[in-house]
Amino acid sequence: MSLLSHTARATLMLRAFGFAKIPLLWACRPSVIELNDEMCVVKIPNRRKTRNHEGGLYIAAMSVGAELAAAVIALFQIRRRGRKAKFIYKDFEAHFLKRAEGDVHFTCSDGETILKMVDETVRTGERVNRPINVIATVPSIADEPVAQFVLTLSLRDVSGNS
Fold first, then answer.
1. Could you tell me which of 44, 122, 109, 108 has the C-alpha nearest to residue 79?
2. Backbone torsions φ then ψ of 76, nearest 5 degrees
């Protein structure tokens, strides 16, 4: 039994990885709000280092949030199966609908798609590409989206390759 919830552990691992490998990720101070088989919600706070001159979340911070919402659920699915996998994003489409003037929650509900990708790459050993959807909202203001993203996740099982 752990003293930390699985979302708190995921947040700590994410921030430690960012500190060690990707300083921009660490500077955004992401938090995992929800994580299960179907979905992941990552929060990026609207603070001085992530805010643009208009008071909204900077485009780079928005991109970090969208990428992490998909990445965290992919890592969750991969680890639950005891596998190792490498993944990248092949492309990134963003539609900014409103100014994000508060802490932004990035929600990826494509856990089932990602699970099928993991199963397929484990079975075939080949790289698998699928579009993954992420919706950004500012719950403190309204539940309607402030941005929509489609990222093509490219995943390959490397469990046999050390």
1. 122
2. -60, -45
Question: Which residue in 3, 6, 68, 65 sits closest to 35, CA to CA?
Answer: 6
Longest CA–CA span in the chain (Å) reads: 49
- In CATH terms, is domain 6-157 a member of 3.30.420.40? no
- Residue-wise pLDDT tens digits, 20-58: 999 998 999 999 999 999 999 999 999 999 998 988 899
Query: If DSSP states are collapsed to H, E and C, what string results for the chain?
Result: CCCCCHHHHHHHHHHHHHHHHCHHHHHHCCEEEEECCCCEEEEECCCCCCECCCCCECHHHHHHHHHHHHHHHHHHHHHHCCCCEEEEEEEEEEEECCCCCCCEEEEECCHHHHHHHHHHHHHHCCCEEEEEEEEEEECCCEEEEEEEEEEEEEEEECCCCC
CA atoms 98, 131, 143, 75: torsion sign: negative
- pTM for the model stands at 0.92
pLDDT at residue 3 in the model: 84
Classify residue 24 as left (phi > 0), alpha (psi -120 to 50) or beta. alpha
Q: Which residues contact 20 (CB under 8 A, 6 or more apart)?
A: none
